[in-house]
Amino acid sequence: MKAKKRGNGKVQEGNGAPEENLKRKAYDKALAKLHGELVKLQEWVKYKGLKVCIIFEGRDGAGKGGTIKAITERVSPRVFRVIALPAPTEREKSQMYAQRYLPHLPAAGEIVIFDRSWYNRAGVERVMGFCTEEQARAFLRMVPHVERVIVHSGVILIKYWLEVSEDEQTRRLESRIDDPRKIWKLSPMDLKSYSRWHEYSRARDEMFKATDTDFAPWYVVRSDDKRRARLNLITHLLDQIPYKSAPREKVKLPKRQKPGGYREAKHPFKFVKERY
To answer: For strand 80-83 and strand 51-58, is the pairing parallel, antiparallel, or unpaired?
Structure first.
């Protein structure tokens, strides 16, 4: 897959044409508009009882977390639920693969976002040796059937792969080393997987070949420019789910009640020191 390359603060298009990274002001303006549309989508999903499942996959440092945050920062966490499961327990390892993900699928009026999903088996587990090659191939044969059942049950299933270039992944992972805000994002597993770029590429290619179906296709988002990637993905997401403004009565604040004899308490409240 031909990815954009970064150099001197620019993003390189697949055809070789340089493109400036999107500026913060333009990004914030576009994102604010999309946030309004996401809220409209949220209310429509609740009103119509839709069930939406969005899967995010990609290499370490591809920008999955930041994109999910951009989607969810202005909507209700009771409608937009983010699922990021830890490593499986011993009991879960003995279950049918993907079983632990199924309880998290959306009910009516919900949008579930998987920050990594059952596709762990086709990617990190396969490359890092946490499953056998036979298990990985069995998964690739099985998962289209499972996703067909999910889609036929009424779930709108949308799958995104965030594609980052080698140079940009290196830059992002290096930036985490000495940044106290980001060091938690750099796990020993990230370091081990970093050296296996081409193994991940092979695993990704086989995953696409087996699971890029007409009823549950993969959508690839170039993510070297994080801001453009977020805007492009959210715009695409909104296009995948037909929605309108849900019926809603005009909001008007009621009058406050009268004190009715209430007096402010004389309790010695412990106020937080105002340092800012």
So the answer is: unpaired
pLDDT band at 185 (very low <50, low <70, confident <90, very high): confident
Mean pLDDT, residues 97-126 taken together: 96
Residue 17 has pLDDT above 60, yes or no: no
The whole-number pLDDT of residue 7 equals: 40
pLDDT at 260 over 50: yes
Q: Is 5 helix (H, G, I), strand (E, B) or coil?
A: strand
CATH number where 190 lies: 3.40.50.300
Beta partners for residue 221, in sequence order: 162
Q: Which two tokens stand for residue 29?
A: 């303006």
Residue 20 main-chain phi, psi, to 5 deg: -65, 145
Tokens for 144, please give them: 């289209």
Q: Which of 178, 208, 176 is nearest to 190 (CA)?
A: 176
Do the domain assignments include residue 259? no
Residue 135 belongs to domain spanning: 49-65+78-224
CA atoms within 13 A on the CB side of 19: 16
Q: In residues, how long is the chain?
A: 276
Inside any domain, residue 181: yes
CA-nearest of 147, 154, 184 to 60 is 184
Q: Where are the alpha helices (DSSP H) in the chain?
A: 24-48, 64-72, 90-93, 124-127, 133-152, 166-177, 188-194, 197-211, 226-240
Half-sphere exposure of 164 (CA within 13 A, CB side): 22
Give how many domains the chain has, as a whole number: 1
Give the pLDDT mean for 186-203: 88
Q: Is residue 17 situated within a structural domain?
A: no
On whether residue 209 sits in a domain, the answer given is yes
